[in-house]
Task: inverse folding
């Protein structure tokens, strides 16, 4: 790809960008589960610049069927699902490389892209909040039981015993802290004399 280079209005020369197919392929071949991914770059006039194809493959087979490349830059960053010229259903993603000039078109099989697992991810998106909600209810119930309901149950038992006339022993009370007047007045930082 050649790009003219200017300073103000003075033409300085051309800038060339060249990528080998191995380098282009290495950007996505190292990741797990991206074996069927393909990528190509195209300019704003719809001409394919670089295509990630096996030797002898036609880059036109990677393109979406019935969607001209010229119409894709106007959509900005876009993801869509349609049939490729090869007849295979694929997921396509268009992103600008050099906005207004060069764009990249990525193509994945729906099973690799996770579209086949969409129902599973939707289930996870609902199941996780529901599980967290149930756990929070259990924690709230446990906290309310420990802090409130247990004491109300004890108080109810004491009131019932009092109502039926059982006044032989005072009600059981929780151990209380000593009154402040009975606590030691000596500060903690004072050490006993030796």
Result:
């Amino acid at each position: 790809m050649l790009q003219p280079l200017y300073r103000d209005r003075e033409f300085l020369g051309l800038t060339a960008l060249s990528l080998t197919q191995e380098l282009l392929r290495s950007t996505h071949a190292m990741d797990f589960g991206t074996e069927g991914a393909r990528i190509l770059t195209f300019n704003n006039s719809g001409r394919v610049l670089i295509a990630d194809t096996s030797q002898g493959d036609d880059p036109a087979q990677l393109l979406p069927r019935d969607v001209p490349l010229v119409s894709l830059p106007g959509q900005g960053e876009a993801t869509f699902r349609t049939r490729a010229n090869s007849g295979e259903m694929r997921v396509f993603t268009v992103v600008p490389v050099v906005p207004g000039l060069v764009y990249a078109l990525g193509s994945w099989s729906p099973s690799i892209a996770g579209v086949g697992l969409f129902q599973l991810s939707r289930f996870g998106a609902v199941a996780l909040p529901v599980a967290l909600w149930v756990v929070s209810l259990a924690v709230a119930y446990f906290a309310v039981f420990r802090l409130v309901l247990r004491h109300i149950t004890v108080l109810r038992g004491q009131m019932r015993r009092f109502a039926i006339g059982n006044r032989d022993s005072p009600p059981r009370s929780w151990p209380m802290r000593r009154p402040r007047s009975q606590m030691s007045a000596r500060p903690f930082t004072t050490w006993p004399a030796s």
